[in-house]
Amino acid sequence: xxxxxxxxxxxxxxxxxxxxxxxxxxxxxxxxxxxxxxxxxxxxxxxxxxxxxxxxxxxxxxxxxxxxxxxxxxxxxxxxxxxxxxxxxxxxxxxxxxxxxxxxxxxxxxxxxxxxxxxxxxxxxxxxxxxxxxxxxxxxxxxxxxxxxxxxxxxxxxxxxxxxxxxxxxxxxxxxxxxxxxxxxxxxxxxxxxxxxxxxxxxxxxxxxxxxxxxxxxxxxx
Length: 222
Description:
- The chain is 30% helix and 26% strand.
- By secondary structure, the chain is of the alpha/beta class.
- It has a five-stranded mixed beta sheet with strand order 3-2-1-4-5, sandwiched between helices.
- A hairpin with a 4-residue loop joins strand 2 and strand 3.
- Helix 1 (35-50) crosses helix 2 (69-86) and helix 3 (95-103) crosses helix 6.
- The radius of gyration is 18 Å and the shape is globular.
């Protein structure tokens, strides 16, 4: 088993290679404007560091969001292209699941990422592996209260959500090493219908993209 995982649904461009036992190499660069420029070099870097090449990869896993339209599409289109090139199956994993898995919590909590427009994408978890609710998009004040919080979305709106709820040392972004490790667990165990983590590599959209198809020109009247 050699799993190549990456995510571009947040400002982090993150990639990792996992051999079924451990993460062999990982790279994370936070740059919200350069997903398209950084992803392929990051993939090449982790392959080179691990002494592997694309034909060695047996599965490809991409974060499927939710996330801003443009960045999210970069990762998923790359996953589909690499799957077509290598013949390896491609899977999608909810980006919030990767944030949750990376935090390592064994108690209930909420993971949140920045959704822009003064909103957050969020999901509620029983533990690092088990999503109970979501993903959803809401204004920070509409996110359920009391539970601990992880993720950049929670940190960004800590004054609204409650700074005391933030989990210290939890990563802000979906690290690809955690994404790969979660995928490996589910590939080995075979996720049942009650806990479908691995899906087709398709984007999770919780609202329409900002760009709109222009309507017909208005008639000019004299």
